[in-house]
Design goal:
The structure is a homodimer. The first copy, chain A, is an alpha+beta fold. The first copy, chain A, has eight helices and 23 strands. In chain A, strands 2, 3, 4, 5, 7, 8, 9, 10, 11 and 23 form a ten-stranded mixed β-sheet that branches. In chain A, strands 12, 13, 16, 17, 18, 19, 20 and 21 form an eight-stranded mixed β-sheet that branches.
Chain lengths: 394, 394
């Protein structure tokens, strides 16, 4: 059985930390945290039937339990609670309804071929969630304590982790500001919660390539903004642009930036290009962590894997639509694909740009690079190959 | 009694409409709306004591009733309901908690010297709220119908409109996406609601000037973004920057843009500069509606008033920090002030820029321009001067 050696993820972490300095957190007790040892568990008396794994729709059916932890400025974090999923009762002035005081993470629990349940690089989600919290002026916490609570939640709802190596239990850690007062300011009350939902194969009929709308008049993020976080505020402005993409026959948006139409990300995925570059080298390219894009955990994983393979050059650098078009014209562009927790990898087949279609030959020869990423990554996630990147839930 | 002739507000409306084309709304039934004639009123059996008008804190105490209207994609808008203020019960997967699917407006009801209650240019709030809804992929509605419901809400809670010409009842129309599902997409369920709260004099001890942090490393909005809307997503990213401003001894942030450090707005206010320009003309300048700033109703009102006065040049154009510093050095800068519904006008006395303090002489000679704006505007709002801009609630 092959073993991946996990590289440290210092690149991502420290870069995010650099952005954070832009917005210092003033909470003296930010280092305080809830603790796993205080966790209280209250099980449902009314467990729901599990859905048919063949008919799972992303984010529509939830496991029986949730994790919930309240915070307020005066007394800090309360005890973590695992309880049946229930509605929140919130005053209509709660800050989250007015000023988007909120952030989230996306993770998955995988049931492996050995029937063990694994998380994938979950420490990195904890770090990123704290980074988002700092930028959003929401309270910090100890990520290791949250991870222990989260593992317990998965154990409690372990029957909800589907028994199939094309499905998983999606985990959604979230934090919202709940203080009942109007006025743009830090929320003095918050709730951290985790929902989970069984999710199906992202590609029920194999890797189905997508089309992207690349229209420079829509801008997702900018220098001095928050594009590197998972604050809810990065997502609301994208929804009507997604609708515009659908109207053009595209499934997603390729967000461009600047007058050179630099490629950034796909809103819910990072973006990778595999080509022969102008120097004649085979190269995998993805945009750098400049603050404009999310520091995706799948992104970092593909970079780490490709560097370990050592088969081609691996670059974190900016490329433009002009570069893409030139490479297409010269038959140098081989593959383009998104990467993210939900889809793992997602091949791109077309880009709508300046009212023309660019055909991307990703799957023409079976997409050898994207296919190898999918295989190697799912081998780890489903326990066919052992790796320090996975954490077993037991 | 003087009368202001109301100019049409086509400039603002049509410019906003131009931005909207960036994100076409695909809802076939967007033109449908709830109707005032369907309004149901359910009064509280437990009216709360009114707060001491001398001790009002913005946004912390709410009138007895709220307006609430539900919407879903299948059946459209439900009946408007006026009911006691109550908590919302929402599933933790509601889109508003994850993707900032939300928007709001800010308005005030003023009790005039004739004891009549007035709204100020409320039709413009209705137009802007629909503009924000379109950009946020939330449902459109008939603004005139909402305004009728809103007037009824003010009538129901008329005892909450303080009897003082330095206070008012702040109205907060809000819309949130409530669909219970994860996934970045249009919300198929929404709630439109209106809260109200009595608010005190913004300047309990007279017009107290504020200090602004102008640091180009923080960027509020970008071309191709949503800075012109009142989506909640414009506010969350500003909160930690506000904290950074407070740490520097500033009350608010002066948001700059671009390499020339162009002045844009103050996050909760638009910005006006009164100076002698480089051509030796007295000029009132405010940034243009380029999409980067909110199309403030107070902003438009000050422009309309100043043009009607005809005493000095009135310009909507960009100026930079270099222009400000040059004007200060040449003793040409007279006044600088914010303008918005909450404060009406708010003089600026200092700007922290590149780790230096710029002293702005706004109140040195009593701030004749900002003071005249305050007087003329409050004369209208409190009924001392009649105006087509006011709408009497009865």
């Amino acid at each position: 059985m092959a073993t991946f050696i996990t590289k440290s993820w210092s690149g991502l972490v420290y870069r995010c930390r650099a952005y954070q300095k832009l917005a210092p957190c003033r909470r003296a007790h930010a280092a305080s945290s809830f603790k796993f040892e205080d966790l209280q568990v209250s099980l449902t008396s009314n467990p729901q039937p599990k859905p048919d794994p063949e008919k799972l729709l992303f984010g529509h059916q939830f496991a029986d339990h949730m994790l919930e932890i309240e915070w307020n400025l005066k007394t800090g974090w309360g005890h973590p609670i695992i309880c049946p999923v229930h509605n929140f009762s919130l005053h209509p002035s709660a800050k989250v309804f007015h000023y988007a005081t909120e952030l989230f993470e996306g993770m998955k629990a995988y049931r492996g071929v050995d029937n063990k349940i694994r998380l994938f690089r979950p420490h990195d989600n904890m770090i990123r969630m704290n980074d988002s919290a700092k930028r959003a002026s929401l309270p910090a916490f100890n990520g290791e304590e949250l991870l222990k609570c989260l593992k317990k939640l998965v154990m409690v709802d372990q029957d909800w982790v589907p028994d199939s190596t094309s499905t998983s239990l999606y985990l959604r850690p979230t934090m919202i500001g709940t203080e009942e007062s109007l006025g743009v300011a830090e929320s003095h009350k918050a709730v951290l919660f985790v929902l989970s939902c069984p999710v199906g194969p992202y590609f029920p009929t194999g890797m189905k390539p997508v089309s992207l709308l690349a229209d420079p008049k829509y801008v997702r993020a900018w220098p001095g903004g928050t594009g590197w976080t998972k604050m809810g505020s990065n997502y609301a402005p994208t929804i009507s642009v997604l609708n515009a993409a659908h109207d053009k026959g595209c499934q997603q948006v390729l967000w461009l930036f600047g007058e050179n139409h630099t490629l950034t990300e796909v809103g819910t995925m990072n973006l990778f290009t595999f080509w022969t570059n102008e120097q004649g080298e085979e190269e995998l390219v993805t945009p750098p962590l400049s603050g404009l894009i999310l520091a995706g955990i799948t992104r970092q994983t593909l970079l780490d894997m490709a560097r370990q393979w050592g088969k081609f050059k691996v670059s974190e650098r900016n490329i433009t639509m002009k570069d893409i078009i030139k490479a297409l014209n010269e038959n140098r562009l081989k593959e383009m694909f998104g990467a993210g927790t939900a889809c793992i990898v997602c091949p791109v087949e077309r880009i709508s740009y300046k009212d023309e279609w660019l055909d991307i030959p990703t799957m023409k020869d079976g997409g050898p690079v994207v296919s190898k990423f999918l295989k190697d990554l799912t081998d780890i996630q489903y326990g066919r190959v052992s790796s320090e990147w996975t954490v077993i839930v037991d």
